[in-house]
Amino acid sequence: MTGGGAREVERTYGIAIIGTGRISGAHARAAQNVSRARLVAASEIDEGRGREFAARWGCEVVRDYHALLERDDVDVVVLTLPHFLHCPVALEAAAAGKHILVEKPMADSVEECDRMIAAARRHGVKLFTAHTEEFMAPNVKARALIDGGEAGAPVLATDCWYKPFGLAGRPAWFLDREKGGGMWLMNGAHMIDRLTYILNSRVAAVKAFVGTRYHDIRADDAALAYLQLESGVPCTIAHTGYKDIPGAGIEQGGGEIIISCTEKMLRVYDRRQLFVSAPGGRRGEWQEVALERYDPITLELECFLDCIEHDAPEPVTPEHARHIVAAMAACEESSRTGREVILSA
């Protein structure tokens, strides 16, 4: 051995995934991509889906997630569960001393968020909500252009995301708002989060419609919201889950964000591309910005393990994740009452 002495051995964190739904594979891939992480096991009540996950990712899959909470080789649990299960399972995980990475939204209500935050603090574990939009290269660069002054001061922003509902492929819970179903909790969380992240400001007040217009279900499939940010910047959000029939709509992928600033306009398209306004012709043109390419969910995990290792704040704080749930709930309240809703500080 040469040089300055023994090299510190990197700690490996055991990862367990609870629920093997649609986003679980991305988290399994992240655990395999990160050198200091090891995918230990997963849990799944559907035996067929559990077997597929085990074969795909080469890990043990058990039926009862409680068995994972009892294992000493599990440091972090990743909750990729139906929304209504986020809170109860997170409370058990915190009591078992496991750090928690929960898919967005943090929970179905602000009250559940408060219970989760209190449990994490009481048991001394980290609680991180996977608001992936904050790790996507176009959003990160767009925020940097605004924060650095290159784009000027933000004036207003719009975020539109149109897509088919995909009714036939949705699980039963997704068709019931009482269980956290509907397009608003799923994608509204992304849209509010990415606007507040890029513009670096919380939501102060909302006026919104969140309702059901396309399908006979007990959950929403359309939303239109006006957000007033604490910075004073006004934003609009439009989202649909239209009928799954030819010609009913035109899918927009991951949506389109346009931010008008005093010096430039910014456009984030389909979560993959960033454009800025540039001279061209009489009216200007969009110029694509070169971006570093990486897997945002892998970066999420890297940052989460950093905060555990150094006992630092979570990369997305529980308070921010709670604020997103509060903003979504305020939009639903506004839709019910027809009135503007002011968010508490």
Summarize the structure.
This protein is of the alpha/beta class and 345 residues long. 32% of the residues lie in helices and 26% in strands. The protein is globular.
The radius of gyration is 21 Å
The largest sheet is:
9 strands, mixed
CATH architecture of the largest domain: 2-Layer Sandwich
Q: What is the percent of helical residues?
A: 25-40%
Largest beta sheet: what is the strand line-up? 14-13-12-11-7-10-9-8-15
CATH class of the largest domain: Alpha Beta
Number of helices: 9
Indicate the multimeric state: single chain
**Total beta-strand segments:** 15
User: What are the low-pLDDT stretches, counting only 5+ consecutive residues below 50?
Assistant: none
Share in β-strands: 25-35%
Structural class: alpha/beta
Explained architecture:
This protein is α/β, with parallel strands linked by helices. The protein folds into 2 domains: 13-130, 3-Layer(aba) Sandwich (Rossmann fold); 134-293, Dihydrodipicolinate Reductase, domain 2 (2-Layer Sandwich). It has 9 helices and 15 strands. It has helices at residues 24-33, 47-57, 66-69, 86-95, 110-123, 137-147, 183-198, 296-309, 318-337, and strands at residues 13-18, 37-43, 60-62, 76-79, 99-103, 127-130, 154-164, 203-211, 222-229, 234-242, 256-261, 265-269, 273-278, 285-288, 341-342. The protein is globular, with a radius of gyration of 21 Å.
Please specify the SSE layout and strand pairing.
Layout: E1 13-18, H1 24-33, E2 37-43, H2 47-57, E3 60-62, H3 66-69, E4 76-79, H4 86-95, E5 99-103, H5 110-123, E6 127-130, H6 137-147, E7 154-164, H7 183-198, E8 203-211, E9 222-229, E10 234-242, E11 256-261, E12 265-269, E13 273-278, E14 285-288, H8 296-309, H9 318-337, E15 341-342
Helix pairs in contact: 1-8, 4-5, 5-9, 7-9
